[in-house]
């Protein structure tokens, strides 16, 4: 055992570090920390996509069987997989990022979050860094799903797919931020996290036209779907993966994703500022 | 180093109920002091520490910590203090060395300097072999040492430790303290800790601040507190069933008070127990009083707490009962 230098390391900054530059630096530190476990254990990406894979494997074939004949009508051109795979990507974003608050909840319990709160890291960076990190596993999961589905006849329009991935990432940041905000809000009754998450996720999913076309549903369902940002996102992803990039559908998808991200970050940053109480 | 004035903190539990966790704490701590804040669970120790470390804002009152106001300049306070909370500071999915590197970069070290600092601290706290281990795979004692390492990354001049050894076995507690005291000597650090282990406050701290119901009820060195508020106690029994002649002898000892005679047993507070007992035995032999047993009880901080509040600190301690309590009564064979 040697002794530790008596004086503080000379580089330690004691002067103020404010402004956007400091914020970007802090966001980078938080994001890097959040990504490390993923880097050490890349297979953990798979855990977040169990549900979408189940739907792909066990629901997709049913869809092919029952709707396959309608291809070209309700589902647009290109068959069932062309219609279903983009929706599964949105589902991956939905399941992956809406559960991510659980990791923060765990850090509340262990004390790791408290440790971050007594460091000079700015409060917003603690939320933004975490939310931005959601892009990485999400992109990984999306790429895996697309690659898996190509042998089954899924046709890839590369440019559209890349824009689709970016769209998904922006939405994931927003939903991830909301998931963290939820975790902060319920930190004193942590079981509430799963109650709220599970209660919201299925109506959102069914009212997005992700699994079955909403066109065949009753009027009230189609009206409800119009209020669901996820529905716009699903439509936009389907358009993008069909190669239709410059359409109004895609534009509405971007509006939905950007609004989700803006609201999520605003709500999340506010929640984070009060997370020590 | 710390100047807190009339700090209070209320928690609103419901519309009709507000808990006054801290009811006006004023505390001055000079550079280099090692101060233990002692009190039962729920006394307001942790709430006070959370205010001083900028985690929560006071309901009223002010505090200057490391030269900066905790409410107006929280970021400055955070840059200067080290903090080891009750929980574990390291994320369970992280690796030991990564967490130290992250802390280094938070405090402005570049990658190389952060790695070097992490290596120094790993070495100093006996964690080098665990550097690539996941935090969730560490034992309680190892995790606690990592917490201390994380709190020291930036070489703070003031270190807060919130119940640093709760849940550790005696061997790990001793080991942790060895590290903390050595780091303190090397860094010339001011250390403030909360504890509900009275022996820990007694043996480690130079100054003990006793807190109860959100207020400071005593503040002095452990030795002075014990001498002033508790004092030595002797318990003597006689062969036979009447201790009254012995009680009269006890009454004549220097500083004797609260003399209680109960059957064949006399107990009393005296000024200096170890000196008083031989004197009493000589007087008993001279007066032909047959003494059977004699004991000196030297006071613990628990006796101090009992004298101050009428309650025992131990009542709140059963959860983490400490088998190796250093201050068991010293029995003196007669």
Summarize the largest interface: chains and residue counts: A-B, 40 and 52 residues
How far apart, in Å, are the first and last alpha carbons of chain A? 39 Å
Low-confidence stretches of chain B: 316-334
Number of domains of chain B: 2
Give me the secondary-structure category of chain B. alpha/beta
Radius of gyration of chain A over all CA atoms, rounded? 21 Å
Portion of residues within helices of chain A? over 70%
What's the total number of strands of chain B?
14
Shape of chain A: globular
Order of helices and strands of chain A: HHHHHHHHHHHHH
Assembly context of the chains: heterodimer
What's the mean pLDDT score of chain A? 87
Describe the structure.
- Chain A is mostly helical.
- Chain A has one domain.
- In chain A, helix 4 runs antiparallel to helix 8, helix 4 packs across helix 12 and helix 12 crosses helix 13.
- Chain A starts with 18 loop residues before the first helix and ends with a helix.
- Chain B is an alpha/beta fold and 334 residues long.
- Chain B has 2 domains: 224 residues, P-loop containing nucleotide triphosphate hydrolases (Rossmann fold, 3-Layer(aba) Sandwich); 67 residues, Alpha-Beta Plaits.
- In chain B, strands 6-7-8-3-9-10 form a 6-stranded mixed β-sheet, with helices on both faces.
- In chain B, helix 3 crosses helix 4 and helix 5 runs parallel beside helix 6.
- Chain B is elongated.
- Chain B starts with a strand and ends in a 25-residue tail after the last helix.
- The C terminus of chain B is likely disordered.
- At the A-B interface, helix 1, helix 5 and helix 6 of A face helix 2, helix 3, helix 4 and helix 6 of B.
